């Protein structure tokens, strides 16, 4: 059974900052492609229960995201809160400035990503996946490979999250969602390069093929190669 990414993202917020963390969870769902443009968020009552916040707090968070241009509320029989078709463009922080502000954060984020993502690929390949899990990986891979440049970052994140999902570990999927959000802040500071995207798609195919072939060694190795390419680009632009 697939560990659904929305279960990992829409998990209970911690006490102390319920409004801020609710906004964070909703943005995470949108930016990682768990809820795609045009889709409706879960019903208010259900979402408030899953996040363990009051409906007042949830409404305030949704209002904030409406003001920021991420969602819109529709009334009527088929109403609800929907992700906008045209999302705000990420603000690109100059690469050198971001590197300076991060200090040791770059090494930390890359190390955490390496451990989680190589481990996830190996763990996924070590399981006997169900037909639904295999289809889930293939679908996310196809969507990433066919993505427009403007959508690539979101669908790339969705594919990596799908690999975590099919490990069957909700905790790993939640950790992956968190690290992808940190990483995307870094990636938004550098340009998307067509040749790199082509190469990434080839590596994605190799990782998924290894997982579907039940080959944990190859899955881990191909994921390591893929992450090394991303790290090289980040360091080139940020340092």
TrEMBL record:
InterPro entries tied to this protein: GntR_C, TF_FadR/GntR_C, Tscrpt_reg_HTH_GntR, WH-like_DNA-bd_sf, WH_DNA-bd_sf
GO function term, MF aspect, one: DNA binding
Keyword DNA-binding assigned: yes
Alphabetic keyword roster: DNA-binding, Transcription, Transcription regulation
HTH gntR-type domain: residues covered: 16-86
Highest rank taxon of the organism: Bacteria
CDD domains from the UniProt entry: WHTH_GntR
Protein's name according to its UniProt entry: FadR family transcriptional regulator
Organism: Kribbella soli
């Amino acid at each position: 059974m697939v560990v659904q990414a929305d279960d990992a993202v829409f998990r209970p917020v911690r006490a102390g900052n319920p409004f801020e963390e609710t906004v964070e969870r909703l943005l995470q769902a949108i930016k990682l492609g768990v809820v795609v443009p045009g889709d409706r968020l879960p019903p208010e009552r259900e979402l408030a229960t899953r996040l363990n916040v009051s409906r007042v707090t949830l409404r305030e968070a949704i209002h904030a995201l409406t003001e920021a241009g991420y969602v819109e509320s529709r009334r009527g029989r088929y109403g609800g809160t929907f992700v906008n078709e045209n999302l705000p463009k990420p603000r690109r922080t100059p690469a050198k400035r971001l590197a300076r502000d991060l200090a040791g954060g770059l090494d930390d984020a890359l190390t955490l990503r390496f451990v989680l993502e190589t481990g996830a690929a190996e763990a996924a390949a070590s399981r006997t996946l169900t037909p639904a899990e295999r289809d889930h990986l293939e679908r996310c891979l196809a969507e990433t490979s066919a993505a427009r440049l403007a959508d690539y970052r979101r669908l790339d994140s969705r594919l990596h999250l799908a690999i975590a999902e099919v490990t069957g570990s909700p905790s790993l999927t939640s950790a992956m969602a968190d690290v992808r959000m940190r990483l995307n802040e870094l990636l938004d500071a550098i340009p998307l390069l067509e040749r790199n995207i082509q190469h990434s798609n080839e590596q994605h195919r190799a990782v998924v093929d290894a997982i579907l072939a039940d080959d944990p060694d190859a899955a881990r190795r191909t994921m390591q190669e893929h992450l090394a390419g991303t790290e090289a680009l980040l360091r080139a632009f940020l340092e």
